[in-house]
Amino acid sequence: MHLKYDDEDELLADFMTYRDDYNYTFTYDDIHLQLINRTLSDQLMCQSQSQAYPNDDRTYCNTTFDSISCWPIALAGTTTTLACPRELNGVKYDTSKFASRHCYANGTWDIYSNYSQCRPLIDFHLEETFHDTDATSFIYFVGYSLSLVAVIIALFIFLYFKDLRCLRNTFHANLLTTYLLLDLAWIITASLRIGPDQRHMSQCAMMVILYYFQGTNFFWMFVEGFYLYMLVVRTFTVDKIKFKVYIFFGWGLPLIAVSVWAVVKVKLTVPNASSGSSQSQQVVWTN
After folding, report:
1. What is the spatial distance between Cα 192 and Cα 119, in angstroms, rounded to a whole number?
2. Residue-wise pLDDT tens digits, 250-281
3. How distant is the alpha carbon of residue 161 from its chain centre?
4. Facing residues of 257 across strands?
5. Looking at per-residue confidence, does 122 or 278 come out higher?
6. pTM above threshold 0.85
């Protein structure tokens, strides 16, 4: 049932009044639910269902809408529970489970609603999606494993035969090393994400390492191109550049870039007090 208005101006005026009187917050569940916007009529309907405070000296939290559920008046210092939504974004959820939200002693709601117990009902289409995901992961594992074997063979050839040892082939060997480490890092990271023992800190550490090796891979490609340019265009100055400069570009600069990214990522991560999870603020380049 939705509220009815004679024209859009009347509806907009009513909404502006409610907006000033109530605090609208956007909430999320870091496991299953995503940020969504409810229609204006749903928000107004929630406010129209609000009840008057009991006539006593106790403190209460007001009726509020968190973009998913309409939370009724609650006594300060208590936690309110509501049944999980029946359907959200076309996905059906188990209504026997409950979402919760805490009302603080000062009469304000927790900014987060805890929907961690709301689980989607697995149907045939979702199971089919899971099977497709497993097949895709298997193909990735096979591809990275074959790449790892090929890189090891190529790296062995460069290191074993002394006749191949020169500055240019040293660059090749470093580039192959980045491929080797990148393949290993991806396999370990993927194994941690799909394994039964999913430790959050170990996954974060492996993601940082994975990004670092991705950076070294691109930077050693840059070193190869830069050396070729110096060899062809700046023939008489190529020998003036020390090998340690190339090492710094290939291994050092990615370390600096990834370290700065990791620090900023940690600093801009906001803990979710209700569900014990964390969400990153909207800084695009840190995602």
Report:
1. 23
2. 999 999 999 999 999 888 765 443 444 444 44
3. 45
4. none
5. 122
6. no
Cβ contacts of 111 within 8 Å, gap of 6 or more: 25, 27
Per-residue pLDDT tens over the stretch 34-55 = 433 444 666 677 777 676 777 7
Q: For residue 211, what are its two tokens?
A: 């990004």
Q: In which residue are the tokens 């194994």 written?
A: 191
SS (H, E, C) the chain: CCCCCCCHHHHHHHHHHHHHHCCCCCCCCCCCCCCCCCCHHHHHHHHHCCCCCCCCCCCEECCEECCCCEECCEECCCEEEEECCCEECCEEECCCCEEEEEECCCCCECCCCECCCCCECCCHHHHHHHHHHHHHHHHHHHHHHHHHHHHHHHHHHHHHCHHHCCHHHHHHHHHHHHHHHHHHHHHHHHHHHHCCCCCHHHHHHHHHHHHHHHHHHHHHHHHHHHHHHHHHCCCCCHHHCCHHHHHHHHHHHHHHHHHHHHHHHHHCEEECCCCCCEEECCCHHHC
Beta-ladder partners of 101: 80
Summary mean pLDDT of the chain: 76
* Pair of tokens at residue 187: 């396999």
